[in-house]
Amino acid sequence: MTQYQHVTEDMSVYRDGTIKLHGPEGFEGMRKAGRLAAEVLDELTARVEPGVTTDELDRVAREMMLDAGAVPATLGYRGYTHSCCISINHVVCHGIPSDKRLKDGDIVNIDVTPLLDGWHGDTSRMFFVGEPALKAKKLVDVTYECLMEGIAQVRPGARLGDIGAAIQKMAERHRYGVVRDFCGHGLGRLFHDAPEVVHAARAGTGPELKAGMFMTIEPMINLGRPHVKLLNDGWTAVTRDKSLSAQFEHSIGITEDGAEIFTTSPKGLHKPPY
Ligand code: MF3
Ligand code: CO
Ligand code: CO
């Protein structure tokens, strides 16, 4: 049986498998962290162009977070040494910034998680480098719709599985593969907390959603089959069949009548083309 925990802010630092229910202070903290996360992606948007290295984008992301009084939550996380993840083309997630240069036609995900005043804002978007192929652009567009369809299911009384069911339905209508190996997650004072938000599920299953829960929804959708493999660096996940993969991520809080998105772009840069 799923358990819930009503928390004071102090108690909420423990990962104990329960789904935490947050109050107004939590929402206030998440709004600030989420806004900063979205601002970092807004700032990176103009810099995503052919020839730029992913190290350079990582540097800009790091400096912007530090300047805002935040810390990149990925820095030192389980031995990860960068301030964001940058996943190009067939990389599904957790691509490591390097001296590799973006090139015309690439589709790229950048995922940032500032930790600001004790709260995590976790968001990612896709970017076009120059002019990608039509099939790549369509994958990106449908992946954004998958995220927003998932969020549209969120309200008190719905079930966690309703989110994945909506995402899976949208993706499979286009014959795309929904990645099963990585999930969205609860977050707040912790980066990764209960519940696991799966992106393929049966409607009406799983724990009941309640006002005060915080979670990410972050579907990874492949042009081909859903299967992934991990590269030898221990982080980079790629599609087994080398097909293109896309992902968008928002951090949300459940309100009395739906979802509040903490990581909406202040500049309206929701999906490419920007
Ligand atoms: N931001 C990722 C997520 O959405 C996690 C990245 S962990 C890292 O959950 F160590 F790979 F950076
Ligand atoms: Co996340
Ligand atoms: Co993320």
From TrEMBL:
A divalent metal cation 2 binds at D122, H185, E218, E249. Keywords: Aminopeptidase, Hydrolase, Metal-binding, Protease. Pfam families: Peptidase_M24. Residues 28-256 form the Peptidase M24 domain. GO terms for molecular function: initiator methionyl aminopeptidase activity. Substrate binds at H94, H192. Its EC number is 3.4.11.18. It comes from the Bacteria. A divalent metal cation 1 binds at D111, D122, E249. Binds 2 divalent metal cations per subunit. Has a high-affinity and a low affinity metal-binding site. The true nature of the physiological cofactor is under debate. The enzyme is active with cobalt, zinc, manganese or divalent iron ions. Most likely, methionine aminopeptidases function as mononuclear Fe(2+)-metalloproteases under physiological conditions, and the catalytically relevant metal-binding site has been assigned to the histidine-containing high-affinity site. The keyword Protease applies. Its cofactor is Co(2+); Zn(2+); Mn(2+); Fe(2+). It catalyses: Release of N-terminal amino acids, preferentially methionine, from peptides and arylamides. Belongs to the peptidase M24A family. Methionine aminopeptidase type 1 subfamily. Removes the N-terminal methionine from nascent proteins. The N-terminal methionine is often cleaved when the second residue in the primary sequence is small and uncharged (Met-Ala-, Cys, Gly, Pro, Ser, Thr, or Val). Requires deformylation of the N(alpha)-formylated initiator methionine before it can be hydrolyzed. Monomer. This is Methionine aminopeptidase. It comes from Aurantiacibacter sediminis. The gene is map.
